[in-house]
Specification:
36% helix; 260 residues; Rossmann fold; alpha/beta
Amino acid sequence: MQDNEVKTTTYPTADGFNRHFDPKAYLKEMFATPDDEDQFSIRFIVEALNSLPNQLFIHEFGGGPTLYSVAALAAKAREIHFSDVVDANLREVESWLKGKPGMHDWNPYIALALRAEGVPITGATITERAALMRKVVKQLMHCDAQKNPPIALENVQYDLVAAHHCTDVAATTVKGWIAVVKNVTNIVRPGGWLMLSVTTGSRTYEVGDVIFECVNLTKEDIQDGLVATGYRKESIILETYEVEHPQEYSGIMLALARRC
């Protein structure tokens, strides 16, 4: 795209995401190869999971077209449900789960999860984890964080809901973000856990030639918002990663909290 070309800006709605979000462009831009942020995220996920029971009923909420989180979650899962607001993202994930040729290569991210777990990284262990991921992901479904309930399944709650880089892109204000987290919390069982990731230091992000609006959250916003939506203050674990040379954004934050 030339510098003088006008990019499309869209508000974070289900319709806007479905019309403008390109999973192939997103994976090419963001997940071509693991970087320091990916290592930080996967290490946090693995260490958080180490503090939780085994055989968890897990929901990967708003997972986009990505499976890096599932690579770690699978080791602790009895069953995983995966959701996203974008139909094309679900098709992307489904194609990988079915082993279709030409799909995105998640092996480097599986290797990161194994390394964080202390598992030797070999062709066999990577293949074994990929097979486990395909085994434990039982359902793919549509979700919308701006709705209550955010999924169509009735009366279903999970031991753990992982919501990575989706709650902050479903809102443009802190108040709106709290409403989104409240919606997502409805599928977390009482005493269960919410794990989330957000990008910091920006009110927009780009995928291909589209600019998406989002909310810029602080550490205090996340802590206060989790308490306000029913999580135990003393249970909140929050870690921050700051980029070395911030330009489009300043970093990422990951949190784990237990519902009251």
